[in-house]
Amino acid sequence: MWFELQETPLAWVDTAPNKFVNELVLDATPDEVFAIFADIDQWPKWFKDIKRGAWDEDGERGVGSRRTVYLRDINVRETILAWDPGKRFAFCVTHASLPLSRNVVEDFRLEATDDGRARLVWTVGYDVRAFVVPFAFIIKMKFRRMFKRALASLDAYVKAQ
Fold first, then answer.
1. pLDDT tens digits, residue range 120-132?
2. Which residues pair with 79 in a beta bridge?
3. 30-38 vs 136-160: helix axis angle to the nearest 10?
4. What whole-number distance in Å separates Cα of residue 104 and Cα of residue 91?
5. Are 127 and 33 spatial neighbours (Cβ–Cβ below 8 Å)?
6. Helix/strand/coil (H/E/C) assignment for every residue in the chain
7. What pTM value is reported for the model?
8. In the prediction, which pLDDT does 37 show?
9. Residue 139 confidence (pLDDT) above 90
10. Could you give the CA distance from residue 5 to residue 77 in angstroms, rounded to a whole number?
């Protein structure tokens, strides 16, 4: 069963009531890191909570493309909000298999460092549903840990390439 979330514009991530912000410099160029994000088959290789993902349609990928991602504890449907190779990849969650959030936007911003590596700033903005508020701290701890593990795993994955 799918629960609908509000389709949310990209700018909302900057004013979201709840956020995770993680930053890391990766041993790859911004274009190389973007290529990892653009390839749904690479996500389970570095984001261990993701079992698999699939684009909902064939053809060229970009803003407006949709995909379904199957994680260990939840499944989500996403719409791509930003597709700017080497600079930005972002999506909003439009449906989830658990009714935890009203809005979720993930924003991956890339910039080149002076030595040509990629600085990644990964922001996850979200707003929980009212009935979740008493348990929000548990959800926040779980997802904070998940995103930190994913970032460390992405770093290791990039270094192994």
1. 999 999 999 999 9
2. 66, 92
3. 120
4. 8
5. no
6. CCEECCCCCHHHHHCCCEEEEEEEEECCCHHHHHHHHHCCCCHHHHCCCEEEEEECCCCCCCCCCEEEEEECCCEEEEEEEEEECCCEEEEEEEEECCCCEEEEEEEEEEEECCCCCEEEEEEEEEEECHHHHHHHHHHHHHHHHHHHHHHHHHHHHHHHC
7. 0.95
8. 98
9. no
10. 10
User: What residues have CB less than 8 Å from 146, skipping those under 6 apart?
Assistant: 49
Neighbours of 117 (CB within 10 A): 18
pLDDT digits (tens, 9 = 90+) for 81-95: 999 999 999 999 999
Return phi, psi of residue 14, to 5°.
Answer: -75, -20
Tokens of 80: 């791509």
Q: Please answer whether residues 75 and 96 qualify as being in contact, where contact means their C-beta atoms are separated by less than 8 angstroms.
A: yes
